[in-house]
UniProtKB/TrEMBL annotation:
<dbReference type="GO" id="GO:0005743">
    <property type="term" value="C:mitochondrial inner membrane"/>
</dbReference>
<keyword id="KW-0496">Mitochondrion</keyword>
<comment type="function">
    <text>Accessory subunit of the mitochondrial membrane respiratory chain NADH dehydrogenase (Complex I), that is believed not to be involved in catalysis. Complex I functions in the transfer of electrons from NADH to the respiratory chain. The immediate electron acceptor for the enzyme is believed to be ubiquinone.</text>
</comment>
<keyword id="KW-0472">Membrane</keyword>
<keyword id="KW-0812">Transmembrane</keyword>
<protein>
    <recommendedName>
        <fullName>NADH dehydrogenase [ubiquinone] 1 alpha subcomplex subunit 1</fullName>
    </recommendedName>
</protein>
<dbReference type="InterPro" id="IPR017384">
    <property type="entry name" value="NADH_Ub_cplx-1_asu_su-1"/>
</dbReference>
<feature type="transmembrane region" description="Helical">
    <location>
        <begin position="12"/>
        <end position="29"/>
    </location>
</feature>
<keyword id="KW-0679">Respiratory chain</keyword>
<dbReference type="Pfam" id="PF15879">
    <property type="entry name" value="MWFE"/>
</dbReference>
<keyword id="KW-0249">Electron transport</keyword>
<keyword id="KW-1133">Transmembrane helix</keyword>
<keyword id="KW-0999">Mitochondrion inner membrane</keyword>
<keyword id="KW-0813">Transport</keyword>
<comment type="similarity">
    <text>Belongs to the complex I NDUFA1 subunit family.</text>
</comment>
Length: 84
């Protein structure tokens, strides 16, 4: 009579195991699809900040050509018919 709790442990273990499997499956599927883990509690503000950060990082590493270069290029090279 002292081991009746053991009778309930097997179904409890099966249910807990299935919940763990489903949670991990969701995590790995999201990670494969998006390339990073799911950000829990990601609201509109967080999404806007991620977009802003991405634009800033891209603008830092994008080569910048000054308007002065284009002015010299079109006035100097095109008038003298020197083509690069």
């Amino acid at each position: 009579m002292g081991l009746q709790w053991l009778e309930a442990a097997l179904p409890l273990g099966i249910i807990a195991g299935m919940l763990c499997i489903m949670g991990n499956a969701q995590y790995y599927i999201h990670k494969v699809a998006h390339g990073r883990p799911k950000h829990v509690g990601n609201d509109v503000w967080d999404v806007a900040m991620e977009r802003r950060d991405k634009k800033l990082i891209e603008s830092l590493f994008r080569p910048q050509i000054s308007p002065h270069f284009w002015k010299l290029f079109f006035n100097g090279f095109v008038r003298n018919k020197v083509l690069i």
